Amino acid sequence: MYVILNAAMSIDGKISTRKNDSAISSKLDLVRVHKLRSTVDGIVIGISTVLEDDPMLNVRYSTTRTKHPTRIIIDSKARIPLNSRIVESSNKIQTIIAVTHNASPRKIKQIQSKGAQVLVYGNGRVNLRKLFQQLEKMGLKKIIVEGGGEINWSVLKLGLVNELVVTISPVVIGGRDAKTLVEGKGFTNICGGIKMKLSNKIIQNKNEIVLFYKLR
Ligand SMILES: NC(=O)c1ccc[n+]([C@@H]2O[C@H](COP(=O)([O-])OP(=O)(O)OC[C@H]3O[C@@H](n4cnc5c(N)ncnc54)[C@H](OP(=O)(O)O)[C@@H]3O)[C@@H](O)[C@H]2O)c1
Question: CB-side exposure of 200: number of CA atoms within 13 Å?
Fold first, then answer.
């Protein structure tokens, strides 16, 4: 399975403000992301992003797409609200909630009754390697991971990412509590970091840069 990590960040590497405002990039970039979504089989996000943004995670601004990619939410304890836009629309757009054995069976049933599929992988946090293997078996050949920072760290650390696409928007946000592109524990030494090579770059709206990296 080919995995693209896509995110928009400020010049100082934040993907949201300390109050979780994440509308960082331009309309043009949003259109680019939706075009990219229209070429993939699945979109993965973490539960905190659902709780903060209540996204639809569908394809808009694209006239070519007839089917929306499968939405996959990483949610150990099945915390996703039953009235979230994702759960509410899961009878129309294929949706997978990936949970662990710690998730309440009652909540799992409630999610399923709304139309979403529930996959159980792991005990503490969702076992992303096993989940991605299963997604591949289910026929998903290309997916995008769209954050947040915790999920980005986990997929990068596990070596599950083939391509990294980062939009740098011309704004400085600051704030030690504002989320950055990659959270988690992080590597101890620079030499332990994930080495990437720049494969393309675009300048849009004069001041916004989109960088395309592949694994070195
Ligand atoms: N600018 C952008 O491109 C962009 C994109 C997306 C999000 N955001 C912003 O990012 C913020 C949220 O980011 P976040 O880092 O707090 O959260 P996140 O990555 O959206 O979700 C993290 C949560 O996922 C769950 N999880 C389950 N298994 C996991 C695993 N194996 N590895 C990592 N997490 C796992 C954990 O909660 P449980 O233990 O409860 O399962 C964890 O706390 C929001 O403010 C959102 O608006 C910005």
Answer: 7
Measured distance between the N- and C-terminal CA atoms of the chain, rounded to whole angstroms = 18
Predicted confidence at residue 148, as pLDDT, reads: 96
**Is the Cβ atom of 130 under 6 angstroms away from ligand 1?**
no
Residue ID of nearest Cα to ligand 1 atom 13 = 148
Q: Are strands 208-215 and 196-204 parallel, antiparallel or unpaired?
A: antiparallel
- Ligand 1, pocket-test mutation among 125, 146, 157, most atoms within 8 A of CB: 125
Element holding 106 (H helix, E strand): helix 105-113
- pLDDT at res. 192: 94
What pTM did the predictor assign? 0.97
How much is the pLDDT for 63?
67
Is the C-beta atom of 167 inside 6 A of ligand 1? Answer: no
pLDDT at 65: 63
- Residue 118 CB–ligand 1 contact under 6 Å: no
Question: Contact 102/123 with Cβ under 8 angstroms?
Answer: yes
Mean pLDDT per 10-residue segment, the chain (216 residues): 98 98 96 95 98 96 80 98 98 98 98 98 97 98 98 98 98 98 97 97 96 95
Show the tokens assigned to 146.
């769209």
* CATH number belonging to domain 2-215: 3.40.430.10
Which ligand 1 atom is at minimum distance from the Cα of 126? 28
Look at the block and give the residue holding tokens 């979780």. Answer: 20
